[in-house]
Amino acid sequence: MTLTAPLSCLLALMVIGLAHGIRDSLGPQDLDPRPLELKEVFKLFQVQFNRSYSNPAGSEHSRRLDIFAHNLAKAQQLQEEDLGTAEFGMTSLSDLTEEEFGKIFGHQKAVGEVPRMGRKVGSEQQGETLPRTCDWRNKAGIISRIKNQENCKCCWAMAAADNIEALWGIRGRIRACSPTLSPFASELLDCNRCGDGCQGGFVWDAFITVLNNSGLASEKDYPFKASVKTHRCLANKYRKVAWIQDFIMLEDNEHKIAQYLATHGPITVTINMKLLQHYKKGVIKAKPTTCDPQLVNHSVLLVGFGAETVSSQSHLRPHRSTPYWILKNSWGAHWGEEGYFRLHRGSNSCGITKYPFTARVDQPVRKLPVSCPP
């Protein structure tokens, strides 16, 4: 059930007003009954995001109300601390604790063994001029629709499948908008080398699985099942619609990552997702103390970059430009900026340079030029 536009605006205004007061009032000695405004906002939240708990007097309802209130206060704190243009507030995830959020949407906390491979960017990148903007969404048949991992910890598999699909689309072999041809992540969950299904993994696990299975089947043949249950591997049953020659890890240098993105296509990155629980829109620019770049736990697809001009409130200060990355998430199109989000570019926001991986779908000796749309 969705809210009408006027009701959505009313809800936003109520949330903003409440967040300031909640930050100052919540604490161990917080007393009931809750303020009427908070209870009303929580009711509207349940309607907008189709939430239901036990009866209004039940313990689960009361616990979720507590969590919701603290999350509104946290979002307001993030809003005040952010150095970019991001807007934080009430989202579909506002009734989850930080621990629940991590367990549902992240991948394994322990990174495990990263493949022993050097970081590299092809020698053809030397001397390349970096375009001002790049957005692979603007070229038809490259970026597929936003997907929803639901309660399955498969961000790593979806990011890897999207990476392979985009690279094949760039080379004109398949179209990302065709469900009969698009490779999908389900096969990676059932057949990955760790056999963990929805229990988590990393993008290099996905790429190694694709190499071991000689490719990926289509979404039509191997549909997604958001279940924690590990299903029987059917990799040999269906025709492969995409495959890879190998995969590489790029240098931990944002300029070179941008060069590779613009001249080869979308890549996968793994970031600290802590701030995404409260993210609504805009460019996130966080301090390392707010979003630790070493604690990465969520894989997404990097699809472009650009810069946003921010007007100054004072005539004494010039307009400033905020460079950003464009990233495709896997939490549904209702989240963030229609399923996407933006991170500040140039400050290693939330650890974006730690594990930049991409498949290669051509033999290394072949160098087909590609051009990213602005």
Largest sheet: 6 strands, mixed
Low-confidence stretches: 25-33
Strand content: 5-15%
Rounded to the nearest angstrom, the radius of gyration is 22 Å
Question: Which descriptor suits the 3D outline?
Answer: globular
CATH class of the largest domain: Alpha Beta
Total domains? 2
Task: Describe the 3D structure.
This protein has helices spanning 5-25, 36-48, 59-81, 98-105, 155-170, 186-191, 203-212, 254-264, and strands at 87-88, 134-135, 246-249, 267-271, 279-281, 283-284, 298-310, 320-328, 340-344, 357-360. The chain has 374 residues and is of the alpha+beta class. The protein folds into 2 domains: 5-81, no CATH class; 103-360, Cathepsin B, Chain A (Alpha-Beta Complex). The strands form 3 sheets. Strands 2, 4, 6, 7, 8 and 9 form a 6-stranded mixed β-sheet that branches. Strands 1-5 form a two-stranded antiparallel sheet. Strands 3-10 form a two-stranded antiparallel ribbon. Helix 1 crosses helix 2, helix 1 crosses helix 3 and helix 5 (155-170) crosses helix 7. The longest helix has 23 residues, at 59-81. The two termini are 36 Å apart. Residues 25-33 have low confidence and may be disordered.
